[in-house]
Specification:
Layout (H helix, E strand, L loop, with lengths): L1 H5 L2 H18 L11 H25 L1 H7 L12 H26 L3 H18 L7 H9 L2 H10 L7 H28 L1 H6 L5 H5 L1 H29 L1 H21 L5 H17 L6
Helix pairs in contact: 2-3, 2-8, 2-14, 3-5, 3-6, 5-6, 6-7, 7-9, 8-9, 9-12, 9-14, 12-13, 13-14
């Protein structure tokens, strides 16, 4: 159980669903052939989940003291799993992921896949070690990386000659909204972790500028996201009214609730609501024509 908590098992389930539904979306086109058979696709998904798990592990390894202040009940390192064992888990997860990525890269003759995995490992370490304490830089990096698997999946699963503009446009739009929602959630988590980050001198946006300005920034980002979403809903209402209604009820409405209700004291609740919004966003792919 401690290991599952360490790798953020619930978040991995959300990522798995996002990858599976993205794959399901573009395989609806009968004339699309795939680079990967089902076995290779599963290996690709596992390698992505492994590298994500490793990122969660290194974050806990380097953030133990802060977690003791912000969320002592959730501390795992040196409580259930030793630091040394956690470090071994981190290297093993990354190594296994790179082995799978190497195999898949050579299989399709595209070493860019392996390169992306190596760069991602470096960036996740860089975030935990340095960028987490740089106002907004760390938030932006994690927000960019979190939905990235959805964006890169078609580039490696589909031959270049078979990538449809409609597929890329849809995946890019989903990525943009995934980035914005994750950025909002990252800033809310900074507000939630304000006390521990300040004591450990981790210079997040909330520590440097205060929680009130952080909440203002969250509201600005929510307004921007809602404007983009409303434009999409108006456009979709003509061609897919069911999807438009779904987005309004399950994405737009809870975002409005967060905008109106967020305070310094209820950030944990708001972060959870955003995770639910992300889940509904993933399932929206089932409704895309």
């Amino acid at each position: 159980m401690a290991f599952l908590r360490l790798i953020r098992f619930k978040n991995l389930i959300l990522l798995f669903l996002a990858l599976f539904l993205t794959h399901f979306y573009y395989t609806k086109y009968e004339d699309i052939s795939l680079n990967f058979n089902i076995t290779s696709f599963i290996l690709l998904v596992i390698s992505i989940l492994l590298i994500t798990s490793a990122g969660n592990v290194i974050n806990d390894l380097l953030d133990t003291e802060t977690d003791k202040i912000n969320k002592p009940e959730k501390v795992i390192i040196n409580k259930f799993i030793s630091y040394e064992k956690g470090l071994k888990i981190y290297f093993l997860l990354n190594l296994t992921s790179l082995i799978f990525a190497s195999y898949l890269s050579f299989k399709i003759g595209n070493l860019k896949l392996l390169f992306i995995f190596i760069v991602t490992i470096f960036l996740l370490y860089l975030y935990s070690e340095i960028l987490k304490g740089k106002p907004l830089l760390g938030n932006l990096l994690i927000a960019l990386l979190t939905p990235a698997p959805i964006l890169i999946l078609p580039y490696f699963d589909l031959p270049e000659s078979h990538i449809k503009t409609t597929v890329l446009n849809t995946v890019c739009i989903i990525y943009i909204f995934g980035f914005l929602l994750n950025l909002i959630r990252e800033i809310i988590k900074d507000i939630e972790d304000y006390k521990g980050d300040k004591q450990q001198k981790i210079n997040t946006f909330s520590v440097k500028y205060g929680t009130e300005k952080s909440i203002f920034l969250v509201r600005v980002l929510i307004v921007f996201t809602m404007i983009l979403l409303q434009i999409s809903i108006v456009y979709l209402f003509k061609i897919n009214p069911f999807l438009a209604s779904y987005l309004f009820v399950f994405i737009q409405t809870p975002l409005l609730y967060i905008f109106l209700q967020i305070t310094e004291k209820n950030t944990k609740k708001m972060s959870f609501i955003l995770k639910i919004i992300l889940l509904f966003g993933v399932f929206s792919m089932l409704l895309i024509n």
